[in-house]
Amino acid sequence: MYICALVGPSGTGKSHRALWVAKEHNIDYIIDDGLLIHGNGVVAGKSAKREKTRVGAVKTAIFTDDEHAFEVTEALRQNNVERLLILGTSDSMVSKITRRLGLHEVDETVYIQDISSKYEIQQALNTRRSEGKHVIPVPTLELKKDFSGYMLDPLNLLRRRGLGDYEMLGEKSVIRPTFSYLGKYTISDYTIYQLAEHVTVRCEGVSGITRFRAEKSEDGIRIEMDIVLYYGYKIPDVFKKIRDAVIDEIEKITSLNVSAVVLTAKSLVLKSDYKNKNKDFVTV
Q1: What secondary structure does DSSP assign to 182-245, as a single string?
Q2: Is the sign of the CA dihedral 156, 160, 161, 165 positive or negative?
Q3: For residue range 148-172, what is the model confidence (pLDDT) as tens digits?
């Protein structure tokens, strides 16, 4: 197996450059912060950016957990990986990763200062320090389930091929992990209700919400709502509009996954009953 390392201090833009380095060296597999990545997908491992402390993140990144190391080692073997890129903050870190995964020493090392200007490195450092943002070289949709509750934004990576001509190298994701420089954040159930209610009552055929419940899990938020509808509308059509609107609004505003929206038609009212709409109640 040919092993290439991309080395640079934390926050200098290694993950941002990873796909470019892999492309230049004809490498299909990348190890970055505890993840084994192939193309646009996570093959094995767990991300260090999910850890609650920096110490925990470092331990995950160098595969100190035997089960974690075994999972990635087996994935490398089963996929017959011939060329591998390992990202690390130092030569020593990369050596620790190769030892933990039973790999030989690195064949070639690329240093971040050799492929990024001082200005680009400083920009990356400023973004990390001021916004606490990290990059993972896979698409946002690939990470949504594992990173429910984190700030996720897609970032396309392009390479100039000629005047006005760009080649798409892939999509990366920008996240703000739990151990962010900006600290933790919490979104209350009532805030989730307000977002859901805001779009639900604007759907044609809806009179109001009589019960709301939000349950959080590793897969995302499960939302249950009892709805009062106006008579004369097709309930399945109205429910589809509500479900789509709620999912879109909550995921867009909070970056949390909505794993399910369960709707119950509690009652039907006539348009003339609109004046009683404010008598509906909500439980959160």
Answers
A1: T------HHHHHHHHHHHHTTSTTEEEEEEEEEEEETTEEEEEEEEEEETTS-HHHHHHHHHHH
A2: positive
A3: 555 444 544 444 444 444 444 444 4
Greatest CA span in the chain, whole angstroms?
77
The order of strands in the sheet holding 206-217 is 206-217, 220-230, 258-269
Topology (CATH) of 189-279: Alpha-Beta Plaits (3.30.70)
**pLDDT at position 32, please?**
86
**Domain range list for the chain:** 2-176, 189-279
51-71 per-position pLDDT tens digit: 777 788 889 989 999 999 999
User: Rounded to two decimals, what is the model's pTM?
Assistant: 0.53
72 and 45 Cβ atoms separated by less than 8 Å: yes
CB 214 within 8 A of CB 221: yes
**Residues 227 and 265 sit within 8 Å (Cβ to Cβ):** yes
Q: What is the pLDDT of residue 185?
A: 57
Instruction: Kindly state the average pLDDT of the residues 118-123.
Output: 74
Q: Using alpha carbons only, give the angle 131, 135, 141 rounded to the nearest 5 degrees.
A: 115
d(CA 284, CA 197): 12
